Amino acid sequence: MQRHKRRIATAVSTVTASFLLSLPLTAAPAHAASHNPVVFVHGLSGSASSWNDWVADFEADGYSSSQLFAWSYDWTQSNATTAQQLATEVKSVLAKTGASKVDIVVHSMGALGGRYYLKNLGGTSYVDDFVSVAGVNHGTSVASLCGWLYTSCKEMQTGSSFLTALNSGDETPGSVSYASYWSDCDAAVVPNSSALLSGATNVDVGCISHTDMNDDHGVYEQVRDFIS
Question: What is the pLDDT of residues 32-69, one digit of tens each?
Fold first, then answer.
């Protein structure tokens, strides 16, 4: 009787061990380790908090807080200065995370500093995906309202020397994957087509206000899928 019980116990142990070996080694999402760190760049009159909703969304979709970097800068300064600071931020992120590249997501005027970094400061070596959300890539007539106050705003004016240089030649340099999400009723990017980038995946998201573009969950899902 005891021998019979031992045989049953052995059989149960064997089946249990086989079952356990068949289970995944970890319960963590399979894609979690493959994420690049994401650096978020706000626009005129913005700050790191401009990205709170999307940071929360990324975390809900498997990113860790240590992979998400929203930072603040002086938005009144030249976008070239912002680009230099972005270069420092990216190097810091790579050092902290051990990653080889980052993804950059920008909103509004943040597109100018981000693109200057890529084109003029060697950023293409450190960036995998670049996403412009309501970016003023070719300027906006609205910038005439603040161009006399801030250097950054003056550079956003359609036809400015800054934009002429930035958009000369290849608008999407290097092996970076570029996307631009734009609204067809954006009152801050005039004309709306100014947001498009030659060589990028350009997506018309419909009628969403300028300030809602980087809060909108539908736009977020498209951005998330692009950089994934």
Answer: 458 999 999 999 999 999 999 999 999 999 999 999 99
Single pTM value for the model: 0.85
User: CB atoms < 10 A from the CB of 111, how many?
Assistant: 29
Q: Return the exposure string of 160-182: e unless at least 16 CB atoms fall within 10 Å of the residue's CB, then b.
A: bebbeebbeeebbeeebbbbbbb
Q: Give the whole-angstrom CA distance, residue 46 versus residue 211.
A: 10
At 164-186, the pLDDT tens digits run 999 999 999 999 999 999 999 99
Q: What's the CATH number for 35-227?
A: 3.40.50.1820
Dist CA 199 CA 69 (whole Å): 26
208-220 as b/e: b if 16+ CB within 10 A: bebbebbbbeebb
- Dist CA 153 CA 108 (whole Å): 11
Tokens of 15: 């089946």
Quick one: which H or E segment has residue 131?
Answer: strand 127-133
Please check whether residue 144 is in contact with residue 190, taking contact to mean a CB–CB distance below 8 angstroms: no
pLDDT tens digit string along 4-34?
444 444 443 443 344 333 434 433 333 445 8
CA distances from 124 to 116, 162, 176 (A): 11, 20, 6
Angle formed by the axes of helices 52-60 and 217-227, nearest 10°: 60
Name which of 200, 182, 199 is nearest 191 in CA terms.
182
